[in-house]
């Protein structure tokens, strides 16, 4: 097992770094040794560690840890894009969150990262036709982590949800690559309409805390939505919007708002 882990780490720099950080963390805080061994060092790959955390966090009297672990292992084995997306997500958290200095932190402690990885498994189940099980995962993520992402929603790679409390993403929402959002963001509908009724968020968008984006509208790539805004109409690319209802108040201010994480408007 140790040799297999070493071989895998040699071709997987993210996993190698997670393992190195895990060893250092145990040296710094021996009381966390059991947690870190069971969550990281006991596993042969990043995917296995993700599956373990998924099962541990979401297990309950209704669904055992063992069953959830088998579901997650099956998903990662069947769809290699899940692991690649998880690596992009963890890199995004390290790059954009000033409170994050190690890959180990999102894996063990950050519910935004953990919720997105659980969503990815639920999304896989949804497209396998196992929709009741996907709904179960959605329910448990909402109960345990306070993040409610419909399993049919489409999320790209490099997603960073900071703090992640009270996030809601609806069934027909689409979120592009390299999007960042803060707590209490809603990507929702505007009423009881059915069909395609949720926002489409372009690549590189930054969504501030408490922002509500409602209806089947488009948010152009590399735009910024100010904290507390209510967006009810399309947003052009590379703009900053603010207010209730939100309106364009200026340019985005940089080429990659979701990476820069600058939420100050100086215009």
TrEMBL record:
CDD domains noted in UniProt: LbH_SAT
Residue ranges of every copy of the Serine acetyltransferase N-terminal domain listed in the record: 14-118
Gene Ontology molecular function, alphabetical: serine O-acetyltransferase activity
Any Gene Ontology CC annotation: cytoplasm
Catalyses which reaction(s): L-serine + acetyl-CoA = O-acetyl-L-serine + CoA
Pfam families in UniProt: Hexapep (PF00132), SATase_N (PF06426)
GO aspect biological process, one term: cysteine biosynthetic process from serine
Keywords tagged on the record: Acyltransferase, Amino-acid biosynthesis, Repeat, Transferase
Broad class of enzyme this protein falls into: transferase
Keyword Signal: no
Pathway(s): Amino-acid biosynthesis; L-cysteine biosynthesis; L-cysteine from L-serine: step 1/2
Enzyme Commission code: 2.3.1.30
PANTHER family: SERINE ACETYLTRANSFERASE
Family to which the UniProt record says this protein belongs: Belongs to the transferase hexapeptide repeat family.
Name the UniProt record assigns to this protein: Serine acetyltransferase
